[in-house]
User: Which sequence fits this backbone?
């Protein structure tokens, strides 16, 4: 099988490699009922040393920048309440945490969630968090640019491997809201 983007050597439909996925991602793939068949969620093997965007692009090719997205966990606070949410933005951008995210969550203050919170609440590894398999109650904010891409390279839940999925998948995930301008110039 060939990946729809990138020159990856080891490529499989995600349902065939559930054992390579962290539990919440494997569970989401196993129970998949999204806008495309589960077989269109592609897992590609990649070295965990190159999981972070900059080193990943150095190793696998800078052309993937325009076809990849990062998923980050944010915390919005209002009064004594904290709301955790995930944001999916093009890899070449930063999440507009203090503008778009804060307003969307109705928070007085918003910031990136601490690493321990992000990994503990998602069951995923830092540097590999993906929107597929997040806690169902969380808001999922998706930059419109990502949702419009034919295919998007995102984390797989662990630092080893990535998922390649059609961009339209993100709009169909639980509590997803597609937003223009969620990602700003880095």
Assistant:
């Amino acid at each position: 099988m060939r990946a729809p983007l990138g020159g990856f050597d080891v490529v499989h439909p995600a349902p065939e490699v559930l054992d390579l996925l962290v539990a919440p991602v494997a569970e989401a793939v196993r129970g998949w009922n999204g806008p495309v068949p589960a077989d269109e969620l592609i897992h590609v093997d990649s070295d965990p040393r190159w999981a972070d965007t900059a080193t990943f692009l150095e190793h696998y090719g800078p052309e993937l920048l325009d076809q990849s997205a990062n998923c980050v966990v944010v915390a919005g606070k209002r009064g004594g309440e904290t709301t955790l949410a995930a944001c999916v933005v093009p890899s070449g951008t930063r999440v507009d945490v203090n503008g778009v995210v804060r307003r969307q969550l109705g928070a007085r203050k918003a910031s990136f969630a601490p690493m321990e919170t992000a990994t503990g609440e998602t069951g995923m590894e830092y540097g590999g968090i993906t929107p597929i398999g997040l806690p169902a109650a969380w808001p999922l904010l998706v930059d419109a640019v990502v949702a419009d891409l034919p295919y998007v390279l995102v984390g797989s839940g662990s630092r080893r491997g990535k998922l390649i999925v059609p961009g339209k998948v993100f709009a169909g995930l639980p509590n997803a809201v597609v937003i223009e301008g969620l990602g700003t110039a880095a």
Notes: Residues 34 and 172 are 6 Å apart (CA to CA). Residues 11-185 form a domain with the YbaK protein fold (CATH 3.90.960.10). DSSP finds six helices and eleven strands in the chain.
